[in-house]
Amino acid sequence: MKAAVLYQPGDIRVEERSIPQPGDNEVLIRIKACGVCGTDNALNKGEYPAAYPVVIGHEFSGDVSAVGKNVTKFKLGDRVTADPNRVCHKCYYCKSGNEHLCENLSSMGVHQDGAVAEYCVMLETNVYKIPDSLSYEEAAFCEPLACAIHGNDIANVKIGDTVIVIGAGGMGNLIAQCVRLSGAANILVSEPIAMRRKLALTNGATHVIDPLQQNLGEEVKKYTGVGADVIFEVAGNIKAQAESILLARKGGTVIFFGCSPPDKMIEINPFIINENELKIYGSFNNQFATARAVEMLGSGAVRVDNLISHHFKLEKYLDVFKVFGGLDTMKLMVNII
User: Fold this and answer.
1) What does the pLDDT read at residue 250?
2) pTM (predicted TM-score)
3) Which of 149, 182, 306, 323 is deepest in the core (most CB within 10 A)?
């Protein structure tokens, strides 16, 4: 089979590999579509550690091609997606109900072979059926949507809240839809790229802001007078993360959602946090959210068809990094059919 293999940062090769064989409790999936994530770009740039060499990619869907002898919930031809993270079920975090923080977490495309390939294997417990109403490309959004749902869970958005979303790429647009469904009244999306601001208005934003031309703090106070109830920093931008704390009302919540470079730091004034009783959280992974993501996509409650800007064939996978983050880009999709 063909697969895109990350050997070192900047060294990804599309090459032939043997088709993996499922273990007793595993499912072999013939991959149809795989989205490109900011983590993939960070892996290629050396900003995120990996177990080299590894097949890259983790946002995918496909068909069941074979099953292990102990598999009972799936049969050949089932249309599926998967939670790409394997956990040990033994460590403190797993036993305390925080499996996504597992000490022995193994993620597709990072620690184990991923989905920019013609086939992959997954544990039966990680596989989810997708409805016929979903295209394979739409179903490939289950993993990022699950992450957005988890972030929304942490933020505890309430009916009537004012929410700021900083960054309107694919994840920002998914988060905007999640907070809308949670009842947010004002959803302000800050994004320097005009195309993405326009799309955010289609996907739940009530107001959009160009941070290069407008002062975000002044804009939010036009609607509340006191600041936002919740701020999602989705871009992983160090400057924006530092500034996001100043956008919250007293008692407000700040979510660091975007993937930041591991060697960068920000300065925070602890007096402001203490005096205003701010809550600052990280949002990592997709705790117990994949099934909900499948339901939300299948019902049409969350829209993703308008988030795909570019399509690539597996053979041309290296081209994704030539356009990633461009002014005309949203979600990049690799078609593996």
Assistant:
1) 97
2) 0.95
3) 149
